[in-house]
Specification:
128 residues, mainly alpha, 3 strands, 52% helix, globular
Length: 128
């Protein structure tokens, strides 16, 4: 994986397409050196947009997965609960991306862990 002009280039095992230079994949070295930040910078605005669609009622699915077992929440309550969960996910990724600061180290770490746990728990539900 050679480093040229601050970029790592390598063959992408997930694609059969090549760019004009015959290289299948190029990544800026800063993304490699702080991958968690690069991932957070990618995920955060998409989670924000996804949450905005949920709040606006633009998602076709009804998030029944957020209701506690045996709870008969209506559609409005389900969507609000889902939006609240997404907001909690967003908060932690904002810290990882460097978009948010100022809280105590303990509060930041607690929020990041909570966000990652929710992201893991609801990953399969990040769709319309």
């Amino acid at each position: 994986m050679p480093l040229r002009n601050g970029m790592f280039t390598f063959n992408n095992p997930y694609s059969s397409e090549k760019n004009k230079n015959g290289v299948m994949f190029t990544i800026d070295n800063h993304e490699i050196w702080d991958l968690k930040k690069a991932i957070a910078e990618f995920i955060t605005p998409r989670l924000v947009a996804f949450r905005a669609c949920v709040v606006a009622g633009e998602m076709t699915c009804i998030p029944t997965w957020v209701a506690p077992a045996g709870d008969n929440m209506d559609e409005v309550q389900l969507r609000q609960t889902w939006a609240d969960i997404l907001e909690e996910m967003i908060k932690g990724f904002e810290y990882y991306a460097g978009y948010k600061s100022g809280d105590t180290w303990e509060a930041v770490e607690q929020q990041k862990q909570k966000s990652l746990a929710l992201f893991y728990q609801y990953y399969d539900h990040l769709w319309d």
